[in-house]
Structure formats: C-alpha cells, structure tokens
Specification:
Helix content: 25-40%
Strand content: 15-25%
Radius of gyration: 17 Å
Strand order of the largest sheet: 2-3-4-1-5-6-7
Largest sheet: 7 strands, mixed
Structural class: alpha/beta
Number of domains: 1
CATH topology: Rossmann fold
Order of helices and strands: EHEEEHEHEHHEHH
Distance between the termini: 52 Å
Number of strands: 7
C-alpha cells in the first residue's frame, strides 16, 4: 500500500509540526525566532528549573508550525542548566516537552568552527535537520565568506543563509524544513576531519572561563 504524506506543516497524526531552534549562545537564535513567530510567542519557565521556555507559532507553506527556541548550548553533554534542558528535550527525556519533529541548527558564520561541535551532535541524533547560517555578512566583511553549498555537502544536511532581522532567507528555511520533515535526508557520518576539528574546538571552549564563553 502506498504511503500518504501528511499535509504541509502537519505531522502524520494531524498536529502541527514542532521545530526546535538550537545553537550556541549569541548565534542569532532569538532573532530568527522573532522573525518566524512575530508576536505569536509565549515565555515561561521549564517546570522545576529557572530556565526560560520560549515557544511560538508561525505560518509555513500549508499550515501552522510550532517553534521552540531552545536555551543556548555549546554541547549536548550538559555543563549548565541551559544545556541540560536543551539536551533533555532533543533526546526525548523531558515528559513536559516532546522531542521536535525537526531541528534548526542556528550557526554563526562569523564563528563557524566553534559552532561545528554542536552541529555534529545534532546530526548524530538522526532527526531531520537544517542549518540556518547567520552572520554571513559579518563573516564576509572579515574576509571569511562562507560557501553554503559546500558546507551543505560537507555536513550532509541542507544549509540556508539567514538574515533574521530582515527576514532574508526565512521563507526558504520554512520550505526546507517542510521538505526535511516529510522526506528526511539520510544521515551520513561526518567526515573524520570535521569530527576532529569539532572536538578540538569544543575542548578549547570548555577550558574558557564562563564569562568568556
């Protein structure tokens, strides 16, 4: 029997798709969250912890999509309350927040190497994943232009350049998210060189004093 795809913006059980935004602190998650949801958002705390819970809803091709702005994290191996909440949600260990149908990894193009470790962990989760590349203009001004297509080939997932405060790339991101959620791209292991670089950078970040992270 042929499978029947869920309508755009909805899962096979009829509820809206749930998309989680994950990324390092100051990578541009909140700007993208605001661009996606506008005023249609709620802010509270996760039960049992003093970590802010931000959620909202946006209109995507074919329907509504629920967006969760996860706390900033450098790693899914938690070293802070924020990272613990993010890791628990993404791995399905928080009963009050089911795991998302797809993940947007918000990556600062001007600080790309440090962001790769979290991206590598998100890829290993095996969920539909899109990389939203922010600060592309900043990277270009520093003489570090990023080839989004080459990065996509290296990571094995779609990469969409974003300028959140101008909404540039947001519609393309929503289309890519829908496509990833209903027809996920097969997850391939990251090249060994990327793994090694990501681990080295993660160790370097872990050695920094907390105010400098």
């Amino acid at each position: 029997m042929n499978a029947v795809a869920a309508p755009a913006g909805r899962t096979s059980v009829g509820r809206p798709l749930v998309i989680a935004l994950a990324g390092n602190p100051n990578a541009g998650k909140t700007t993208l969250f605001n661009a996606l949801t506008g005023l249609r958002q709620k802010v509270a705390n996760y039960p049992g912890v003093t970590v802010e819970k931000k959620s909202g809803r946006c209109h995507a091709p074919g329907g509504e999509v629920d967006i969760i702005d996860l706390p900033g994290a450098y790693s899914l191996v938690a070293n802070s309350p924020d990272e613990a909440v993010t890791a628990a949600i993404l791995t399905g260990q928080r009963p009050d927040t089911p795991p998302p149908d797809a993940i947007v990894a918000v990556v600062d193009a001007s600080n790309l190497p440090r962001n790769l470790f979290l991206v590598s962990q998100l890829i290993e989760l095996g969920r539909p994943l899109i990389v939203a590349l922010t600060m592309v203009d900043v990277a270009a001004r520093r003489g570090q232009p990023i080839d989004a297509q080459a990065l996509s080939r290296a990571l094995g997932v779609p990469v969409v350049p974003i300028t959140g405060h101008r909404r540039q790339g947001v519609d393309r991101l929503l289309i890519a998210l829908h496509q990833a959620a209903i027809a996920p791209t097969p997850v391939w292991p990251l090249p060994e060189a990327l793994w090694e670089e990501a681990h080295e950078l993660a160790r370097a970040v872990g050695d920094l004093p907390e105010p400098l992270r």
